[in-house]
Structures are given as structure tokens and as C-alpha cells.
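thought: fold this chain, then report.
action: predict
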Amino acid sequence: MYFLLTIFLFGFCLCIYLMADVMGMGHGVDGAGDQPPGGGGFCPVVPRKKTRGKAKNLKLDAELRRTGRPLTLPIDTECTFHPVGKPCDYFTREVGIYMWHNIQLDRLGWKNVDQFEKTSLDVHLKAKFDLAQVEKDIHASKIKGGIQQVIQKQFSDRKHYAKVEFQNGGGYADIQRARNKVPEDMTRENWHKAIRHFLTPIKRSLANAACRGKQRYANRGGSSSYSSTSFK
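observation:
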């Protein structure tokens, strides 16, 4: 009995020794001979923070997956002839995203954008929205006009956002810095074209400024003319 107990204790001590020898080969839990980065020990894995896609239309994508076909676009045929409801939100966001990615923002208004770019946008939208329904409506011409107004507004908004990015990136005080700070999801080529547009004087603006300089009295009537204001 004493002999068996002696053997058991000897084996137990041997196991403890071997375990201590193996664990002493490294620092921390990697078993290597070098100290793990950051001071050793266990380095917890931090999951990547989920952020909302800046240039994504996630709700529209979800609807397209659910229905399996282009989305119907409800139209206000009583007054504005504009898209309405949630599909309108999806539509305007999709237009804005596509413009930011693909349309050059160096034009004076949507009417001056190349027809090729307009056609490309039209093809892109028809893949996601059932615009064929417009052709069948008795108010087709008015609805097309309303949709064009929405698109024109989005183009104006994209130019405004680009101008804000330009000013925040250095603006007129540091043009080179602004050129190097290309906005997310916009091509460098289109960004540089937009900046050249911002730096180009507009003849109409200069003419308006000259006219304002000739005014003896400031107009406080907003967009109303002097004749209109006098009868209010």
C-alpha cells in the first residue's frame, strides 16, 4: 500500500513539473518565445462596429429582395404629380446616390448635363422602379415633369453638398488641400471637375452683383419686385 502511494505521488509531481516547463516557454497564451504585442496576456477580439452605409439604399434593396421586381412608384396625380410615400424616399435617395457616384457636378443645372449621363440614370432607375407605369397613365406628361423636378432638385442638392465638402476641405483658402480631400464615394476626376466649376466665375452672378452695386436703397422684400411690394 505504501509503495503504491509513493508511485502515485511521484507521478503527480512529475506532471506538475512538466506542465510548468511547457507553460514557461512563452509569454501569455500564444506559446511563442516573444512577448505578445501590447504588453502580453490575452488580447480580446473586439467586434467591428456596424455603421450605416453612407452611400447605400438599404431599405430599397430589402424591398427589391422581398418583391423580386421593380418597385411601384406612387404618384400624386391631384396636385404636384410627384412621387409620394416611402417609395418616394427610396427614389430620391437612389437618385442622389447615383449622381454622387457617376454624374459630373460641373454643370449649371440638370438641363445642361450630358444626355448620355441622363440616359444612364434613367436605365439605372428603371431597374429598381416600375417607371413603365408612367407611360400608361393618362397624366403621363405631367408625371414625367414631376419626376424631372425631383431629379433636378437632387442634382442641385448634390452640388450643394459638394460645395460644402469643398469648403470644409480647405475651400478657396487652400484649394490644393481641398483637391486632395476627395469625398467618399465620388471619383477623383469628378471631384476635380466640381472644384474647377466652383472656381469659375459665373457671368450672371457678376452681372447681378454689378446691378446690386448700383442700387441706392436695399430691397427688403425678398424675391418680390419693387412694384409688387408697393401694392402689398
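thought: worth noting. Residues 18-53, 224-232 have pLDDT under 50 and may be disordered.
final: C-alpha cells above.
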